[in-house]
């Protein structure tokens, strides 16, 4: 009998899995003694403990295996992977610091370093601000120099199927994946990317969504960013993809038995 635990939501979001998938992964982690052994609980008994159907458990286990959060052996037994335990440990440490009061819980307050100096980064250029008795001291010239393009808006466009061109944003990114809302962890990872990488995503993602059916072959929106899938050749996973196109990547050698085509 598995007595369960709680859901670490920030960890779940980083893994890019559902609540039910997190519960299954957590169960496997505990019953495999944190990856040291194997969880031998049947899919049917997992379903009874969590309150899902057996087929739902089978689908979830396959999904977790494809994300390398668990692994299976030839007997069908499962155990958690270092990837799952690493993500969970990171967020558990942050959670512990939060509840022990080591992290600021208030909103709208700013904590300055002991030396009274704060360094702001603006597009790679550093601007120093010195605090003294509540006042700001400017450089000798009497002016603070900011980059000329500090207010320049990001302009990355992509073309829709109807020919319309739009600015590519994190909202557009999530819409392509069919997400109704933008999660905070995806927003943070997307906005931290360079302009060049966002342009690559804008060109790569529409075809990736078209070629990779949802489920086994398509990565979650978060893992697409973390794994930098947009840097990999496109693989047509549709049933009608039977030819191989290697024009722009002749060094890539696909398996001889593949029924899919590589599209670069």
Number of domains: 2
As a percent range, the share of strand residues is 5-15%
How many strand elements?
9
Identify the strand order in the major beta sheet: 3-4-5
Shape category: globular
Main beta sheet: 3 strands, antiparallel
* Rg (C-alpha, Å): 24 Å
Structural class: alpha+beta
Unreliable stretches covering 5 or more consecutive residues: 105-139, 141-155, 242-260
User: What number is the mean pLDDT?
Assistant: 74
Task: Give your account of this protein's structure.
It is a single chain. This protein folds into 2 domains: 9-99, Winged helix-like DNA-binding domain superfamily/Winged helix DNA-binding domain (Arc Repressor Mutant, subunit A); 157-263, no CATH class. The protein is α+β, with helices and mostly antiparallel strands and 264 residues long. The longest helix has 18 residues, at 82-99. Helix 2 (19-31) crosses helix 4 (54-66). A hairpin with a 5-residue loop joins strand 1 (70-72) and strand 2 (78-80). It has helices spanning 9-15, 19-31, 43-50, 54-66, 82-99, 170-176, 184-191, 195-211, 221-226, and strands spanning 70-72, 78-80, 117-122, 125-132, 135-137, 157-159, 165-167, 234-236, 261-263.
